[in-house]
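Example 3.2
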Amino acid sequence: MTAPTNYAQLTGTYTLDPTHTRIGFVARHAMVTKVRGAFNEFTGTARIDGENPEKSSATVSIKANSIDTRNADRDAHLRSNDFLQMDEHPEITFTSTEIKQTGEDTFDVTGDLTIKGVTKQVTIPFTYEGTAQDPFGNTRVGFEGLTVINRKDYGITWNAALETGGVLVSDKVTLEFEVSAVKNA
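Structure, written as tokens:
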């Protein structure tokens, strides 16, 4: 993997590779441990302007019912009206509104995150991880980022009090993005 000497050579439109990309989350459970999960079905496009990164853009659409925490009962509860209401709101979306280069290989991607029909602006700091040619001759780029949201901001308010004090599910949820995207021909 070699980093380009300048970002100009990255200019183009890229498609997220769902088999090499992870869109995950972490929430505290019972105040003592973390539950990790991911969404297994999503699509996304990034338009990179290497000479003017602020003219770049990104969109992602996630199937809410593809939530996977490696526990079928918990996943069913997360899909229910207590949490994601996936029958009414089958998709979680993100559309960038601003991209700002903050360092040599870091970028703040700000945009509209819509969960359960509620749209809020979030900023996700991303690190450019590099570029590579894959065995099929495709140009791949990698980015990683994470941000913390409050699920209550999106109308996800279900919880249960614990006998020992505290609650079953934290309000704060960390969203994790490990992105591999392939340059379109």
